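Dear H.,

Thanks for agreeing to be a second pair of eyes. The structure we're designing against is below in token form, covering all 868 positions.
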């Protein structure tokens, strides 16, 4: 050991001497362990490196200096063993120890001494790095140095250079590998020798060609399986036979025997090819087209000792080739006959390669004149700016325009005579033999452009006509609106006086004392004429609403039997007056039809009334229903009247046409009832028709859609009319407020209410006064006209409905505004009921009683809420 190494003191990481007598004694105890230890430490064959407990090198012996190239002075108290070790190896060791010992170990000196610090024997192989940067493998033993108290005061790393041993091991391994490879080669050679014949047999059995081998005398020595299949001979049967017997072939066209080239091959040692179109005739007589060759078999002295005949079935190939030829012929025929021009171009330079006859006719050139020329002579647009490529086919194929041109692009073509014309070109790209080509399909669109121009002209004419129609439609709609306004106004103006006429006539008819006979006749005429006029007004309004499309229907499942029963009740008094018997066939099952309840009843009543009106005195009317068509019901009304001629049937559904019955009939008629009925039935999805025989009568029928029976509604029914006796039994006095500006209408209601001692009538002449009186008197029911001075009845209704003091009062509209939209508007606004003028006394009184009962119910509910 060098003097430096022997006299070094242990130091901490700062290089300062460790103080304390105890520390010095521990160091002396470590270094004075005997002559044997000194001899080991000073050995040049081992590197002995001792560190303090921090890992800083304190001893660096001669062996370490020789192995690592450092002088002891270079490392003592300066570096740790980690600094002379492979860093990546230290990291790998830390990871391996962490995994092995189950505790995280930091890469560095701790990784080198961790096992030794735990008393675990640790001999490992490390890669040391010399001072010059070279590396060598070392086997290192790591031991913890402890004092008398077993405390670690440092570590000792004793290593030997493992390079020579590594080389010996490598050389030995190399020799072993060489020996192993030699053994393998010998084994492979043996296997090759053993398997050569087997492999040849496998090869012959698995290749896709048939193989026949012969000896030098042309006797068969081998047939592979495919040859057995094609010839029909097995190898056992064919072996030893002449090849001519096993392999008979003929010329496909001449059917003459073809020469087998085996003898030529055996004689001259040359490869012979089979003639084209050769047919092999198998042992069973089946045939197949074949093709291939015959080659000599030579020994090691290059002498011919046999021949091998290799052939294959080419029947499918010939068929494919023929199909390709047929396809090519078909394509050429199409190109020659198609009306569009087809030109192929080479991508480089746009040189014409092929031209079909249509292109020749289109441009006036022959194919010979075009082939080899630039395409721009036909379409100048695609040849301009050739150098920049902006107009070339290459430009179109390399840009987004390629997709557009593939769909068809309009360009200008130039014929041989210099004339120009419009054509459409579609270009596609293709590659043949590594060369890029374009195919252009050209179509002369001159005629199409003329057609398009004419169509554009006609489209403009159509647009002009549509504009005229729109203008006419606007005028018609304005006229229709004016007509509707006129009808509404007329209805209001006619109903107002009719209300007084019919109202007072009904009062006089039921007055006390009763009218005299003479007075009754006069009253009857007044009522008859008044109701006729009202019917005429209503039917005119219905027809106008239907024609304008403003009539709204509510289609729902309606019980047909109930509707017919209600209609029967309404028309039987009319039939009794004329002695007409009414026969209604009973229903076997309850039919439900898709209809508007009010409108289907209106249609049936019209048919029944006509059947009674135009029947013979004492005749009959038969009503029956038949479900003749799935999903439909047929309702027939048959009478025994005079019947209708074909001429009359043709005019039957014309407005105001009574078919000459105006003077002959004692019954009034408007002439538009059937027109309205027909339109109503059609709006409900039905059909109306008639069959008639002169002298026997007529059958009018309607057909409606059937519906499934609806589920029964749950809840209390709406209050219905209350008879006068029930009202009189109620001793409570009711108050009715009537808001009306027309004196005649007010007087009529006063006369009607005078018959009801249980009702006190109040009146107001305008809407504002009506609101004041309603708030002051809190009437049970309010009767409200619509057209009032100041504010309308609907406006007054809304004001009262928003007032908590009057919101609960039922308000009934009584107005001459009788158009369907007027009634809908009033009910939507919140009127309890909407009655139209002129009133029917019974309907008026029933509605009043329903409203009074509703008011009483509301009052009872309110009282209970107040008590609660």
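And this is the sequence the design step returned. I haven't edited it by hand at all.
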């Amino acid at each position: 050991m060098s003097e430096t190494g022997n006299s070094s003191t242990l130091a901490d990481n700062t290089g300062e001497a460790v103080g304390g007598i105890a520390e010095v004694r521990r160091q002396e105890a470590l270094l004075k362990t005997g002559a044997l230890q000194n001899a080991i430490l000073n050995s040049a064959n081992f590197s002995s490196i001792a560190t303090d407990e921090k890992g800083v090198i304190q001893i660096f012996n001669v062996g370490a200096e020789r192995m690592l190239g450092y002088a002891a002075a270079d490392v003592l108290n300066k570096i740790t063993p980690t600094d002379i070790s492979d860093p990546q190896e230290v990291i790998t060791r830390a990871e391996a120890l962490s995994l092995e010992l189950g505790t995280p170990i930091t890469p560095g000196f701790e990784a080198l001494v961790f096992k030794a610090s735990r008393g675990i024997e640790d001999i490992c192989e490390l890669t040391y790095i010399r001072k010059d940067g070279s590396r060598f493998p070392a086997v290192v033993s790591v031991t913890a140095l402890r004092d008398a108290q077993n405390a670690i005061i440092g570590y000792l790393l004793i290593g030997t250079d493992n390079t020579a041993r590594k080389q010996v091991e490598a050389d030995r391994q190399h020799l072993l590998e060489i020996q192993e490879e030699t053994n393998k080669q010998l084994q492979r050679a043996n296997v090759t020798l053993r398997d050569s014949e087997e492999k040849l047999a496998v090869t012959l059995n698995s290749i896709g060609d048939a193989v026949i081998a012969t000896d030098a005398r042309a006797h068969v020595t081998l047939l592979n399986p495919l040859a057995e299949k094609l010839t029909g001979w097995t190898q056992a049967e064919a072996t030893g036979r002449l090849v001519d017997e096993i392999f008979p072939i003929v010329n496909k066209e001449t059917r003459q025997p073809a020469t087998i080239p085996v003898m030529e091959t055996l004689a001259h040692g040359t490869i012979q090819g089979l003639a084209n179109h050769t047919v092999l005739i198998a042992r069973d007589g089946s045939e197949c087209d074949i093709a291939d060759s015959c080659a000599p078999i030579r020994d090691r002295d290059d002498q011919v000792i046999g021949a091998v005949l290799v052939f294959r079935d080419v029947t499918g190939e010939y068929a494919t080739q023929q199909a390709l030829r047929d396809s090519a012929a078909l394509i050429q025929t199409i190109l020659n006959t198609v009306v569009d021009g087809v030109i192929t171009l080479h991508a480089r330079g746009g040189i014409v390669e092929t031209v079909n006859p249509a292109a020749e006719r289109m441009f006036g050139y022959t194919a010979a004149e075009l082939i080899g020329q630039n395409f721009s002579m036909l379409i100048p647009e695609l040849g301009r700016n050739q150098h920049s490529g902006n107009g070339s086919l290459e430009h179109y194929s390399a840009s987004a325009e390629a997709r557009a041109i593939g769909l068809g692009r309009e360009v200008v073509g130039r014929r041989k005579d210099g004339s120009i014309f419009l054509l459409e070109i579609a270009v596609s790209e293709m590659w043949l033999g590594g060369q890029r080509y374009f195919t252009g399909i050209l179509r002369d669109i001159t005629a199409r452009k003329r057609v398009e121009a004419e169509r554009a002209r006609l489209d403009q004419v159509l647009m002009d006509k549509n504009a005229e129609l729109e203008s006419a439609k606007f005028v018609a709609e304005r006229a229709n609106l004016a007509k509707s306004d006129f009808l509404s106004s007329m209805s209001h103006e006619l109903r107002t006086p009719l209300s007084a006429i019919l109202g007072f006539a009904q009062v006089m008819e039921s007055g006390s004392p009763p009218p005299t006979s003479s007075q009754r006749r006069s009253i009857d005429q007044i009522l008859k004429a008044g109701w006729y006029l009202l019917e005429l007004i209503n039917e005119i309004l219905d027809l106008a609403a239907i024609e304008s499309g403003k009539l709204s229907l509510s289609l729902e499942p309606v019980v047909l039997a109930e509707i017919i029963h209600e209609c029967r009740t309404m028309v039987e008094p009319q039939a009794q007056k004329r002695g007409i018997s009414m026969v209604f066939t009973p229903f076997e099952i309850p039919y439900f039809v898709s209809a508007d309840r009010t409108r289907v009843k209106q249609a049936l009543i019209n048919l029944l009334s006509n059947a009674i009106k135009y029947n013979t005195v004492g005749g009959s009317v038969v009503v029956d229903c038949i479900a003749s068509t799935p999903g439909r019901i047929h309702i027939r009304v048959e009478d025994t009247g005079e019947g209708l001629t074909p001429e009359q049937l043709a005019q039957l559904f014309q407005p105001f046409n009574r078919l000459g019955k105006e003077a002959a009939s004692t019954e009034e008629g408007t002439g538009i009832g059937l027109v309205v009925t027909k339109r109503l039935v059609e709006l409900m999805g039905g059909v109306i028709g008639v069959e008639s025989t002169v002298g026997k009568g007529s059958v009018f029928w309607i057909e409606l859609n059937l519906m499934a029976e609806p589920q029964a509604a749950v809840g209390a029914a709406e209050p219905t009319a209350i008879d006068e006796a029930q009202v009189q039994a109620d001793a409570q006095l009711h108050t009715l407020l009537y808001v009306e500006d027309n004196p005649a209408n007010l007087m009529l209601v006063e006369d009607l209410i005078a018959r009801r001692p249980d009702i006190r009538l109040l009146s107001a002449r305008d809407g504002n006064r009506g609101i004041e009186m309603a708030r002051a008197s809190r009437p049970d029911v309010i009767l409200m006209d619509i057209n009032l001075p100041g504010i309308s009845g609907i406006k007054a209704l809304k004001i009262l409905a928003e007032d908590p003091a009057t919101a609960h009062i039922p308000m009934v509209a009584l107005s001459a505004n009788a158009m369907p939209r007027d009634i809908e508007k009033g009910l939507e606004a919140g009127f309890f009921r909407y009655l139209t003028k002129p009133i029917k006394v019974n309907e008026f009184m029933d509605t009043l009683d329903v409203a009074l009962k509703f008011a009483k119910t509301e009052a009872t509910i309110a009282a209970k809420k107040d008590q609660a």
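Two observations from my side: The longest strand covers residues 420-432. The chain has five domains: 3-161, 207-320, 338-444, 552-705, 724-867.

Warmly,
E.
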